[in-house]
Amino acid sequence: SSEIADVVILTGGTDTALRMLEARPEMMLLAETGGKNATIVTAMSDREQAIAHVLQSAFGHGGQKCSATSLLILEDEVYDDPTFRETLCDAATSWEVGSAWNLDTRLGPLSQPVSGDLERGLKELEPGESWAVMPTQIDENPCLYSPGIKWGVSADSYTHMTEFFGPVLAVMKAKSLGHAIHMVNQTGYGLTSGLESLDAREISDWRDSIRAGNLYINRGTTGAIVHRQPFGGMGKSAFGPGVKAGGPNYVAQLMDFRDRVPTEPPADTPLNAPELEALRVALLKRPRLANGEYPTDLTMLLHALASYERAYFAEFADEHDDFKLLGQDNIRRYLPVQAVRIRVHPDDSAFEIFACVCAARLVGCRTTVSVPTGLTLPMVDLLDTLTPAWGAMVEFVEETDAELVQIIHDGETERIRYASPDRVPRSVLAAIGDSGIYVARTPVLAEGRIELLWYLKEQSISHDYHRHGNLGVRAGETRRPVS
Description:
Elements: E1 8-11, H1 14-23, E2 29-32, E3 37-41, H2 47-59, E4 69-75, H3 76-79, H4 82-93, H5 116-123, E5 130-133, E6 148-151, H6 158-161, E7 168-174, H7 177-186, E8 192-196, H8 200-209, E9 214-217, E10 238-239, H9 274-284, H10 296-316, E11 328-336, E12 339-343, H11 350-363, E13 366-371, H12 378-386, E14 394-398, H13 401-409, E15 415-417, H14 426-435, E16 438-440, H15 448-451, E17 456-464
Parallel strand pairs: 1-2, 3-4, 3-8, 4-7, 6-7, 8-9, 9-17, 12-13, 12-15, 13-14, 15-16
Antiparallel strand pairs: 2-10, 5-6, 11-17
Helix pairs in contact: 1-14, 2-4, 10-11, 13-14
């Protein structure tokens, strides 16, 4: 059949997602893909607790959870602590490995015989690496291996950068928390990430700097629960708009929406966002129709500005914890896409161009309005004229489709917004197949609860803030009662 599904949902490997997009660039792919997930252990951690969390995250389910910890990055004081290494290795070798029918088994058979990257990861060492715990094939079963722990893994090495998807843990040394964060982000993946630290300053710095969809603090990195920890990644671990499974927005990307045509004039209510309020005031000074009403595009835009601001401050601007569990924070928050390119098309209306730029600007994206070379659209010039306060946060450029394709290949944008799917050239779609960059191409809406999703990334943070049941300075907080 020549028909193609409207949306394809994938849980699988990064390479699989890329091959699918290369074969069908026009495919709307929503994929949760691979991960080179890391846990950082700092000198300020509870080290025995960290070992318990890391081993369960690395070897539970055979290390074949997509969220499994496969990198363990130790601050130098911890890395050089012989007691930590001895305890980690002793605990790993104590795991019972065997048949899934044996109730004592903690590490059972893998889903298939080892091969490819996993086989190399289990059987080979690179320069500087050594086996702290050497993995062993059990009972000549090609699917059954004991845990392996590689020590002395170097930055940029094969072990550092490659997803193995099995029971092998790579241990790296970091000079500081900042150095450790850099090594995590360096992999390009961003599914889950863990931190073991009791220091509030380190936790804050890590939360602000790590690039991953699901963050775990002083707990394991596996076992996300629907709604409590909506699941999905960033970077090479996600394809699509980054809307999380198990969260309040997931279904929106599977639906088609249309705005209601407003029947009432926009309310003359000042907006709280200064840049949007300045634009609103400037728009109200634009010429009206002979009957005194605003043109349709202007009316829609004024309604959109109010809706965008309501939605932003109600849902997207602040962190949410819908559960308030005793001893555990479960936070849903939204991060602006760092660089958005709004690609103008000759068929775009003034509303579509203005609305896209206003949405991106409101949530804090660095925004580029990309105009095809030689195309003259008065509304683009008008937008530039009416927004002097936006300064460098919104840039206007002229570029051909070929130049836009090169920008995609060079990784100079994180997301592209077109106002309609039929306005996206196939050459641009083919380029994203190589990069995984998301091209948002749903119709532009005045409803902020939907439109703003295309300029944001969701992130889940789960933090066990108690220590062995002790709530510390947070003991007096109002939380959900224990049932």
